[in-house]
Amino acid sequence: MLAELELLKSLGADVAINYTKENFDEQPEKYDVVFDAVGQGEKAVKVVKEGDSVVVLTGAVTPPGFRFVVTSDGSVLQKLNPYLESGKVKPLVDTKGPFAFSQTVEAFSYLETGRATGKVIMSPIP
């Protein structure tokens, strides 16, 4: 878990909390923005400053939280490309992949373990 906390800090988080060891919703400190990537949005709203935001990547969304989902026909990726090329945005890809298309079941099984760090990549159909 220490590696994940350090990873979050390297990506720009001011504070990274180990939700498996700390009751973060009981902390006296309040935050400007809380990113919930593990489905604990109800707890996250308890530690965000009034009027600020909780960004929920999975699980239930409790106001003032909102779900962050990106879909694209390619135009969003074209706009994102300069940030990727400059290094301002860094994709986080799990080191276990890429999985071959024939390993689809294994890739999904790996995702279900909750141990993936970043995106799990699959190769296209040959």
Automatic annotation (TrEMBL):
Any GO MF annotation of the entry: oxidoreductase activity, acting on the CH-CH group of donors, NAD or NADP as acceptor
Keywords, sorted A to Z: Oxidoreductase
Pfam families to which the protein is assigned, alphabetical: ADH_zinc_N_2 (PF13602)
Coiled coil spans: none
Family: Belongs to the zinc-containing alcohol dehydrogenase family. Quinone oxidoreductase subfamily.
Record protein name field: Alcohol dehydrogenase-like C-terminal domain-containing protein
Organism: Zizania palustris
